[in-house]
């Protein structure tokens, strides 16, 4: 249970012990020999709850499973184990009209502004199709609704008749936002919304999302690797490492007093804009372990400067560390470790 | 970067001929004329294509017989013009069915992937391991000569090529985010395949269709030459070339003019296909 949550309140979207593996291609010989099939362990028991009206940021380095999680949330992928619940219902069990209603209410915005729009459809066709398939408006009101949507995402009215290739990356992302919003969803899952855009355009698109969230009281899951961006827009932040949420908490608490050494390392590694300050040495040693072969015990033990025996034997649970702040670290179980003072690069 | 870019000004959507690819215009011109000749041959042909004139047997090209006459005294020019009807019909009838079947099957196979795709791949391998012409001749030999049986023979084999092309393209397209966006929107697989993926996957098949029509004319002429396609005395280029094969050194015009017609029509299809590829290229 996190802060600001009324007891007994059902989260709008909740992820329970979700596991997702992607099997590697295997040769016929290997199959005959009965060799175990290797699999990329993309998600290894993710827990997360998202409440109505909040923005949850999901951060982590590439390969940590952020995008896989985002795709599980909108049911583009089905988890191998665990479940995703929407308003308490397991989304894997929804079918027919319920499934369509879920698709309408939980929408996704994609990372790549170039491949996420059908190059052969005009903006009017893209939006009109979603509007008519979900019967959002009677046929004769569809044009008026498209005009409203273009206003909403600050695109000129004549954009409707144009094809995606006639727009810039930032404009395309706004078309993507309009497409997601046209079915009036409750939840928006934004997977790396602006990482493909120029920095100058990023702010515009992110601010647009913030305004829309307020205007339409949306619930947003914002997946990104840019920490400053996530800090700027999220109420709560979840940090992922190797397919697991290792720390989650209110944005300010998490950024000012991280309870997991990996979060600390991630924050320290973020580039500083102040030229007088030198970025501290990264607190995480070495490379990300292979997701084909996960370490025993804590997933972070091979890179953690503080690891001790228990970290190699027992995988820490995501435990309460005060005020809706949870971390999966044996150290933080006994109070706040003073990572700031003790983090020094090993000589 | 503001929301209003220079591109926001009202744009002219009219297609100007000068902006079209030259190959498209040239090919279109040749095909347009070919189609007119195919539909209204009698307007352009000065003689009946099967009327024999024993006073003008093997007459060389002249003002009264532009392309000369053949061994029965039939006007070669009239026969070349009338053959447009048969050969354009072969081009269209022999390829359109395979196009439609191949595109639909290919789209479904490409989207389904997995075992379906493997099985389809084996079918493709089985078909392309035989030389196309030999296979068609074998089928026609079983069914009997004639145009209808030729369409059947070509149709049984040819769809595989379209299927393979489209399956490959759909396989690429279905992994792009816009396909996922359709799925996240709750669209049915049929809508995603035929409304979203296919328009982006069909271009190579359409371009191949043009080449295939040229190939169909060649095939039709070859079968006509061998006596397995259009039957004499019908005017058909392959039949005409066969008619002239015994007179090559004395009356070259009997075979050469139908041959030129094949080359020009084939060129028309190829040019048109090239231009179409240019025109249909997806802008990203």
Structure summary:
Chain A is of the alpha/beta class and 347 residues long. Helices cover 31% and strands 19% of the residues of chain A. Chain A has two domains: 174 residues, P-loop containing nucleotide triphosphate hydrolases (Rossmann fold, 3-Layer(aba) Sandwich); 91 residues, no CATH class.
User: How much is the average pLDDT of chain A?
Assistant: 87
Beta strands of chain A, count? 12
Please identify the structural class of chain A as seen in this structure.
alpha/beta
Class computed from helices, strands and strand pairing of chain B: mainly alpha
The structural domain count of chain B equals 1
End-to-end gap of chain A: 41 Å
Please tally the β strands of chain B and state the result. 0
Separate helix tally of chain A: 12
- Proportion of residues in β-strands of chain A: 15-25%
Please give the order of strands in the largest beta sheet of chain A. Answer: 6-7-8-3-9-10-12-11
Unreliable spans of chain A are: 1-7, 340-347
Protein model, in words:
The complex is a heterodimer of chains A (347) and B (284). Chain A has 347 residues and is of the alpha/beta class. Chain A has helices at residues 28-32, 66-73, 96-105, 123-133, 142-152, 169-181, 199-216, 227-233, 251-256, 261-269, 309-313, 339-342, and strands at residues 13-23, 39-50, 55-59, 81-86, 89-90, 106-109, 187-191, 219-223, 236-241, 244-250, 319-320, 326-327. Chain B has one domain (20-41, 75-280): MetI-like fold (Orthogonal Bundle), CATH 1.10.3720.10. Chain B contains 11 helices and no strands. In chain B, helix 9 (203-226) packs parallel to helix 10. At the A-B interface, helix 3, helix 4, helix 6 and helix 7 of A face helix 7 and helix 8 of B. Chain A: One of its GO terms (cellular component) is plasma membrane. Chain A: It is found in: Cell inner membrane. Chain A: This is ATP-binding cassette domain-containing protein. Chain A: Belongs to the ABC transporter superfamily.
């Amino acid at each position: 249970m996190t802060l600001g949550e009324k007891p007994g309140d059902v989260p709008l979207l909740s992820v329970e012990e979700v596991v997702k593996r992607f099997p590697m291609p295997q040769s016929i010989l290997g199959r005959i020999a009965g060799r175990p099939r290797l699999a990329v362990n993309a998600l290894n028991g993710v827990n997360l709850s998202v409440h109505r009206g909040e923005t949850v940021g999901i951060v982590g380095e590439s390969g940590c499973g952020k995008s896989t999680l985002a795709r599980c949330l909108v049911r583009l992928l089905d988890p191998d184990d665990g479940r995703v619940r929407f308003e308490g219902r397991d989304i894997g069990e929804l079918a027919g009209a319920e499934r369509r209603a879920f698709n309408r209410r939980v929408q996704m915005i994609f990372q790549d502004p170039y491949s996420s729009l059908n190059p052969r459809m005009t903006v009017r066709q893209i939006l009109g199709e979603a509007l008519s398939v979900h019967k959002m408006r009677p046929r004769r009101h569809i044009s008026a609704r498209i005009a409203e949507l273009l206003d909403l995402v600050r695109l000129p009215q004549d954009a409707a008749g144009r094809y995606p290739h006639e727009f810039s990356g930032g404009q395309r992302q706004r078309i993507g936002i309009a497409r997601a919003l046209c079915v009036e969803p409750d939840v928006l899952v934004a997977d790396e919304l602006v990482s493909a855009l120029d920095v100058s355009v990023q702010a515009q698109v992110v601010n647009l999302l913030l305004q829309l969230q307020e205007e339409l009281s949306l619930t947003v899951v914002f997946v990104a690797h840019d920490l400053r961006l996530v800090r700027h827009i999220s109420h709560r932040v979840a940090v992922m490492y190797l397919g697991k949420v290792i720390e989650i908490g209110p944005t300010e608490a998490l950024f000012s007093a991280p309870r997991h050494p990996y979060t600390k390392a991630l924050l320290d590694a973020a580039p500083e804009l102040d030229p007088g300050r030198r970025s501290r040495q990264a607190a995480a040693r070495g490379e990300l372990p292979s997701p084909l072969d996960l370490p025993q015990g804590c997933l972070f033990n091979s890179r953690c400067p503080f690891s001790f025996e228990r970290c190699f034997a027992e995988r820490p649970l995501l435990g309460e560390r005060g005020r809706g702040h949870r971390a999966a670290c044996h150290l933080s179980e006994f109070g706040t470790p003073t990572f700031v003072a003790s983090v020094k690069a090993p000589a | 970067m503001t929301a209003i870019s220079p591109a926001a000004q009202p744009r002219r959507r009219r297609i100007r001929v000068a902006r079209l690819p030259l190959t498209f215009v040239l090919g279109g011109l040749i095909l347009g004329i070919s189609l007119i000749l195919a539909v209204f041959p009698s307007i352009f042909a000065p003689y009946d294509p099967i009327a024999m004139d024993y006073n003008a047997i093997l007459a060389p090209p002249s003002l009264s017989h532009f392309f000369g006459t053949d061994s029965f005294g039939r006007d070669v020019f009239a026969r070349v013009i009338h053959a447009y009807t048969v050969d354009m019909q072969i081009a269209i009838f022999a390829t359109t069915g395979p196009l439609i079947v191949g595109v639909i099957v290919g789209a479904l196979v490409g989207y389904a992937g997995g075992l379906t795709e493997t099985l389809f791949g084996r079918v493709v391998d089985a078909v392309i391991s035989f030389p196309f012409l030999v296979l068609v001749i074998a089928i026609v030999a079983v069914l009997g000569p004639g145009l209808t049986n030729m369409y059947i023979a070509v149709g049984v084999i040819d769809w595989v090529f379209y299927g393979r092309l489209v399956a490959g393209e759909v396989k690429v397209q279905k992994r792009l985010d816009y396909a996922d966006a359709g799925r996240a929107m709750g669209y049915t697989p049929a809508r995603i395949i035929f409304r979203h993926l296919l328009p982006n996957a069909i271009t190579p098949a359409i371009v191949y269709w043009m080449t295939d029509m040229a190939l169909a004319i060649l095939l039709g002429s070859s079968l006509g030459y061998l006596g397995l396609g259009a039957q004499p005395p019908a005017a058909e280029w392959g039949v005409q070339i066969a008619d002239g094969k015994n007179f090559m050194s004395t009356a070259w015009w009997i075979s050469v003019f139908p041959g030129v017609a094949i080359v020009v029509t084939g060129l028309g299809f190829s040019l048109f296909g090239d231009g179409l590829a240019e025109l249909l290229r997806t802008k990203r």
